């Protein structure tokens, strides 16, 4: 479903953005495309919403897009978590904007919940998506696993959010890296063409053969791990064995008493020379021939609480990148006199909100001549 909907949404994007009639397009902020794509895909596949590129989700009164409201609410949550004093000092206009975004989002979610409840009670819904299951758990009074209204909305928010922001950031970073490193883009396109050719429709069986497309996405995610911090609380006294710095044998014991919270610094993990040679370098080839679910790739976390959306995200990414790169050559839009290195420093720089991403990525897309990578 994710595969098919992504292909469909890519085609909608090309038509709606007017790309079909153009040979070259400048996109000042590629995130405008990747965020819209990812929100539509989680909305359609995880929630059974019937949105499309020209009619994206909006609040019930139509004043604000859900994408915009999610963005503002997520940013304000980050402020509330890390800088409560700043939040108090925010100008009134900004506070009003946050309040409005919050109301719009709640209005949107409540109306979706009400619609789905009505569909379920009228037995009109044959949907089996995560959203329907959450709504059913809210309705079902016979089980101790019932979700109250607040839990329902909270879960909807986190799934909508986790299900699109992370993937959208990583797609933007991937395209930025491929624009910068034309040789890697070329190598990826060669694999795409050898697997799917220039014209035929993609089928899900292609996914497993497009390991280089997955690798460019994985490597962008390693360098900008969207889930940049993992928080755990010790449920009992324990001792962590911390490996000594490279070159020194053994470990150093680190006691963690019960109740202490431990933060895992995912950026530190992904740049640790113990696991990666030349960690500062964008090298997709480190992921070639590594199985899709391999624990060597840890940016989705590993273990029982690892990301449940890993396959969702990689399926979406491979489908979208394959379609896009087969049709379009990607290049950075440089400012006057700017070198590619300066572009990299300016653009492929960490931007931290609730998740980690890169700054606004300005890219030029040029239509490929069929038959020529
Ligand atoms: C590039 C894309 C993504 C990245 C990098 C990512 C990363 C992560 C990470 C690191 C965690 C563990 C968080 C922790 O332990 O504190 C996580 C958990 C989670 N992710 Fe993702 N994620 C991505 C895409 C998605 C998608 C597409 C969905 C939904 C379809 C999703 C839903 C979730 C959920 C529900 C959890 C919580 C799982 C649990 O606690 O058992 N994620 N994700």
From TrEMBL:
InterPro entries: Cyt_P450, Cyt_P450_CS, Cyt_P450_E_grp-I, Cyt_P450_sf, Cytochrome_P450_monoxygenase. Pfam families: p450. Its main location: membrane. Coiled coil: none annotated. It is found in: Membrane. Pathway: Secondary metabolite biosynthesis; terpenoid biosynthesis. Its cofactor is heme. Gene3D superfamilies: Cytochrome P450. One of its GO terms (molecular function) is oxidoreductase activity, acting on paired donors, with incorporation or reduction of molecular oxygen. One of its GO terms (cellular component) is membrane. Heme binds at residue 307. Keywords: Heme, Iron, Membrane, Metal-binding, Monooxygenase, Oxidoreductase, Transmembrane, Transmembrane helix. Belongs to the cytochrome P450 family. This is Cytochrome P450. It comes from Lyophyllum shimeji.
């Amino acid at each position: 479903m994710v595969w098919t909907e992504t292909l469909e949404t890519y085609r909608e994007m090309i038509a709606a953005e007017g790309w079909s009639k153009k040979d070259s397009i400048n996109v000042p902020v590629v995130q405008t495309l990747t965020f819209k794509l990812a929100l539509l895909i989680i909305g359609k596949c995880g929630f059974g919403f019937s949105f499309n590129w020209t009619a994206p989700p909006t609040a019930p009164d139509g004043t604000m897009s859900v994408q915009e409201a999610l963005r503002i609410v997520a940013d304000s949550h980050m402020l509330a978590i890390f800088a409560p004093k700043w939040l108090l000092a925010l100008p009134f206009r900004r506070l009003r904007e946050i309040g409005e975004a919050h109301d719009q989002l709640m209005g949107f979610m409540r109306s979706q919940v009400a619609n789905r409840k009505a569909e379920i009670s009228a037995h009109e819904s044959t949907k089996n998506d995560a959203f329907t299951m959450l709504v059913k758990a809210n309705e079902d009074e016979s089980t101790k696993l019932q979700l109250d209204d607040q839990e329902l909305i909270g879960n909807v928010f986190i799934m909508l959010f986790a299900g699109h922001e992370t993937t959208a950031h990583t797609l933007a970073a991937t395209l930025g890296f491929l624009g910068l490193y034309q040789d890697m883009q070329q190598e990826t396109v060669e694999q795409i063409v050898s697997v799917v050719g220039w014209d035929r429709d993609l089928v899900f069986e292609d996914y497993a053969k497009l390991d280089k497309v997955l690798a460019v996405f994985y490597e962008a995610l390693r360098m900008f791990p969207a889930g940049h911090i993992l928080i755990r609380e010790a449920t009992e006294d324990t001792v962590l064995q911390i490996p000594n710095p490279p070159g020194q044998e053994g470990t150093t014991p680190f006691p963690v008493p019960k109740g202490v919270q431990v933060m895992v610094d995912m950026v530190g993990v992904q740049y640790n020379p113990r696991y990666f040679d030349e960690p500062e370098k964008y090298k997709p080839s480190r992921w070639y021939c590594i199985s899709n679910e391999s624990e060597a790739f840890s940016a989705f976390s590993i273990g029982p609480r690892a990301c449940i959306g890993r396959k969702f995200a990689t399926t979406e990414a491979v489908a979208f990148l394959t379609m896009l790169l087969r049709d379009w050559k990607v290049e950075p839009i440089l400012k006057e006199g700017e070198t590619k290195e300066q572009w990299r420093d300016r653009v492929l720089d960490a931007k931290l909100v609730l998740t980690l991403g890169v700054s606004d990525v300005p890219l030029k897309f040029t239509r490929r001549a069929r038959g020529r990578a």
